[in-house]
Specification:
With 320 residues, the protein is an alpha/beta fold. The protein folds into two domains: 1-103; 112-313, TIM Barrel, CATH 3.20.20. Helix content is 57%, strand content 12%. It is built from eight helices and ten strands. It has helices spanning 2-99, 144-156, 167-172, 174-182, 202-220, 236-244, 265-275, 288-303, and strands at residues 112-114, 120-122, 132-140, 161-165, 186-189, 226-227, 248-249, 254-255, 280-285, 307-308. Strands 3, 4, 5, 8, 9 and 10 form a six-stranded parallel β-sheet that branches. 29% of the residues are buried.
Length: 320
Amino acid sequence: MWKKTAMFWLAAGLVLGACGSTAEEAGTSNTEQTANANDAQTTDNATENGESQTTQDPNSQAEETDSVNSGENTDAKAEKDATAENEETSAEKADDSSEDPAAASEEIAIEYHMNANYDIVPNEGTDVPKKVVLLTFDDGPKEAEMINSLIDTLDKHDAKAIFFVNGYRVKANPDLLKLIHDRGGIIGNHSYDHIILKKESDAEIKKQMEDTQAIVEETIGEAPHFFRPPNGAGNDYTRVVAAENNMLHMNWSVGSLDWVNQNDSQAVIDNVFDQLHSGSNILMHELPWTVEALDDLLTQLEAKGYSFVDPRAIDTTKQP
């Protein structure tokens, strides 16, 4: 009997032990599941937060990139605009330079000089025409209409001339001197007051010549390189002052006598041809009948095979 009872309790104990073990395993499993669930929730939350951060960062990065790119684009645009502006400015300067006759100064070879007879002759060793004349006009500047007419005719014949001016006339009409210069006339010094210099003191001669140099340079920005004494009445000292001021002391070898044969344009032409020779240094004046005669005079000179020497081609340092 006691054996049956003992077996009963032994079996019951085994059953209860098994149930406890199962319950403990179940509890452990539930705890692990809860922990795993919590971990999973944490991971999900972290993932969501991470995704949210990741989603936000690219946008932020994109904004920063756009900002940088925008800055780079702005800089590039500014640089491009600046380059375009510089190119445009350079082009404008180039255009201005091409329109401004003083901007592209013409290179003229020194191929002639003046001899003791005041004729213009080729330099030794040069192959240039001998049959030339030099055109000169004294006692200006007087009137814009006459100046323009003279230079219109010179331009028609592709000729240049020296305009010997008086200082007092330049002072009274500086715009007329500018007109001659701007239209390509070569300016010469003809003393300030058009007086007979050889009768004056050395001090007065110097003043007459150098005051004219100064007022011409003040007016057009350059001083004359040619000097002609009024009435051809110079002396040794006028030559000295001319040399000191880098001027060629020049008279003439052919006189048109336009100051004598007034109101007679044909007489101007006849007087020139009566004395004409190669190298003729022709004296004329800014006078209405000379203006009228000039086109026919130059046409007839060309018909006889003469050309017109450019005064800038004359060596002003070689005084005979």
